[in-house]
Amino acid sequence: MNKEVEIVTINQENLALYPDVICFINPKNQAFPLKIEWIKQRLSEGLRIKLIYLAGQKKAVGFIEYVPGEYAWRAVSASGYLFIHCLFVYPNKNKNLGLGTQLITECINDANLNKCKGVAVVASKGSFMAGDELFLKNGFKVIETDGAGNQLLALTFGNGTLPVINDWKSQRARYQGLHIIYSKQCPWVVRFVEEIRGTETAKKLNLVITEIKTPEEAQNAPSLYSTFNLIYNGKILADRYISNTRFNNILKKEKLI
Known about the structure:
The protein is α+β, with helices and mostly antiparallel strands. It has two domains: 5-165, Aminopeptidase; 169-253, 3-Layer(aba) Sandwich (Glutaredoxin), CATH 3.40.30. The protein has seven helices and 13 strands. Helix 1 packs across helix 4 (187-196). InterPro entries: Acyl_CoA_acyltransferase (IPR016181), YoaP-like_dom (IPR025685). It comes from Mariniphaga sediminis. This is GNAT family N-acetyltransferase.
């Protein structure tokens, strides 16, 4: 890549200056301040968000969000690692410029600086999650899969303990009836939940909405992704962000409406 870039690290002092920290969400949307508040709380736990800008452009063209593994909001045990929650480069014309690699390198450098065991991430070929190709290109290896199309990958610096996927499957039986279990880690999930909350459909089906409020709860969520779970009688119907249209289509397929 030969384009000049600037990488900005978000902190408590500059958070309000960079609305791009909330990906693709209008600051006027009700989900925006909810995610901002989540970030403020998590920064004290070591959360890092880095935005990347191309020279001459005012809007960020990508970002990465990561935390110490002890505070990962995924159903993993990754103590001693840095754990990547999200990685985006956008729009498509800015892909294949090496921007994603630069953001991953920022995380790897942080991990080395803090003497971590390495860097870990959950990837998927499905929507709303980064695929594994970029991570494999940057030296990561697949450690484990969840049988649902998601992978735990890690770049290790030595022969230390590897991260593992927690037993998310055993958590599903706790949820009888129709449930949404979510966290504010993803602003798109927050937007959907706030839109569906209080609707006639939700009331009719006695939809129970439960917020995951701590990393410990996320690490014991009923899916590897953790941030969004739509469950009916112990069966996962969706494990990542869905639109209202998709939500209704799923309910129709299950003959709930």
